[in-house]
Specification:
The chain has 333 residues and is an alpha+beta fold. It contains 12 helices and 10 strands. It has a 5-stranded antiparallel sheet with strand order 3-4-2-1-6. Strand 1 (96-104) and strand 2 (107-115) form a beta hairpin. Helix 3 crosses helix 4 (53-62) and helix 5 (67-89) crosses helix 9. It starts with a helix and ends in a 6-residue tail after the last helix.
Length: 333
């Protein structure tokens, strides 16, 4: 019986006999190598893009296992679907989300990105986007001409969407892509960015604080955040109230933590701003009891460590702002 005889036999019998016949004609190793290469390409594409098994398989089939072309096709499809999804979900309430804080040398940024549910706020794709947005704001301010002292730029939702990333796409494009991935509405809410000269330093903090050490070039993520610009009259290590040695930057970071927890409205000027009659109603930073050690006020801690707070900003995820100006309010003396 030859190949053509098998073709016209019964369907089940034909397929079985044809496979046996071809197995004798083709080297088994060649079949195995092709199958292995195909699986390897599929695994690589899934790991690199994060898209589903079915979508990655389809992309490879359409492009003869060419990884680069398959990846490009997936991105184009995801962007188109993301914008479509984003348009459909637009207007749905986004009260959850995360605050991203990133400080790199003389530039710092704090960004709020919102979503509909806390479940999505814990999603890896959403968290990656918040980190991308934070880093994009830092890069954006690096190209802004700085003032002699503190340069501060507030960005609203529309301004954030227009920032262009290294891949040539805007943050708005990446937002749509993320919405298509997580399946619910999300929004770029606001950002505050600082750029300082060598005489001023920056630090940031988020709550809940990360449970492990985060590299300096990776944005911090939390439900609350603060960004502080400060001056230090020394660079030596000081001894804290508990006997621990703290650098000026470490003390400033603890003040950042205090700002998140105690929600001051302004820095305050010694001798000009009087303490509130009830300490629980105090909104002036220097007169508030220090969160880390209530035996001292923040002003006393700053004086003891020869630190000066130049400016600060605090974000709480989902908080309602009364005006655009308050979103980017600078803490003033």
């Amino acid at each position: 019986m030859d190949y053509f005889t098998f073709q016209f036999g019964s369907s089940t019998h034909t397929h079985t006999m044809l496979f046996k016949h071809l197995s004798r004609l083709l080297p088994a190793t060649g079949i195995r190598l092709y199958a292995t290469a195909e699986k390897s390409a599929l695994a690589t594409l899934r790991k690199k893009t994060g898209y589903t098994f079915a979508n990655c398989k389809k992309a490879l089939e359409l492009h003869n296992n060419d990884l680069a072309k398959a990846e490009q096709w997936l991105k184009e499809q995801a962007t188109a679907m993301g914008w479509s999804k984003a348009t459909k979900l637009e207007g749905r309430n986004t009260a959850q989300g995360l605050i991203g804080v990133l400080v790199q040398r003389n530039v710092g940024a704090m960004v709020e990105v919102n979503c509909e549910t806390d479940f999505v706020a814990r999603n890896a794709s959403f968290q990656r986007f918040v980190q991308v947005a934070s880093a994009a704001c830092v890069r954006h301010l690096e190209n802004v001409e700085s003032d002699a002292n503190l340069t501060k730029v507030g960005l609203n939702s529309e301004a954030l969407k227009q920032i262009v990333l290294d891949d040539g796409k805007s943050l708005g494009d990446h937002l749509a892509l993320m919405i298509g991935t997580v399946g619910e509405n999300a929004s770029l809410n606001r950002a505050i960015c600082y750029k300082v000269p060598d005489s001023i330093q920056l630090t940031g903090y988020v709550h809940p604080a990360p449970s492990e050490e985060i590299p300096h070039d990776v944005p911090l993520l939390g439900k609350y955040g603060s960004l502080v610009a400060f001056k230090s009259e020394h660079s030596t290590v000081q001894e804290g109230a508990d006997g621990a040695e703290l650098s000026p930057a470490q003390v400033a970071r603890k003040v950042c933590q205090h700002i998140v927890g105690m929600k001051p409205e302004r820095i305050g000027v010694p001798g000009k701003d009087e303490p509130a009659a009830d300490k629980d109603d105090e909104t002036c930073l220097i007169h508030q009891e220090y969160l880390v050690d209530p035996a001292y006020t923040v002003g006393e801690v700053l004086e003891a460590n020869r630190l000066q707070i130049v400016d600060f900003q605090r974000f709480a995820c989902g908080e309602k702002s009364q005006s655009e100006e308050q979103n980017v309010r600078a803490a003033t003396n």
